[in-house]
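We modelled the chain as a single entity of 202 amino acids. Its sequence is:
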Amino acid sequence: MCVTACVITGCASGIPHTIVPDYDQRGIRLIALLPVDNKTNDKQAAQLLREEILEKLYFKGYPRIPLDMVDKKLTTDCGWNIEANRECNLPLEIVGKRLGVDAVMYCTLLEWKTSFISVYAPTTVSVSLELKDGRTGTTLWSSRYSVVDRHYDFTKKRLELKACQSYEPAIREIVDETLSSLPDGPDSVGDASPEKSFWKLW
């Protein structure tokens, strides 16, 4: 029944995703956004994606937990080597407990590329997101989305320029579309300083 409910919810929203039926009753407020599992060769793209997700989570009502603080705690408290392993595959019960959060969000940058074919150059950006309970490791929500931006011009140089200019809008579109299916957090956007409660809990 749970699986059926997840599938139905995903189909109804328009963007493929899964979500536990009782998400609203789980009290999810503090979400730690882990470093991006980057399957591409572009480090800047992964950082841009992570920053966009963090900002979107904040405007959906989840307190902004600084990325450098998350990285520092993963390194010093959990023994994660940021240089040797970009994918944070530490046991989730350790990560959730040490970070003191309700949930942990994993993000994978699957594609970030442009193919040049004569006067045509499609740019593809693909991302998957997964939110897991910080205490039990249960997957609470997940989504995956791809954007293909098509460019046409007579020279490769002009095509390259158009491709470069399309990456950031593509990332913003992906973040907006995927996170649109994630329920809003308990702190409304109108609250003056949702971070105040976060600092008391950290």
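As a brief sanity check on the tokenised model: The chain has one domain: 2-6+16-181. The two ends are 36 Å apart (CA to CA).
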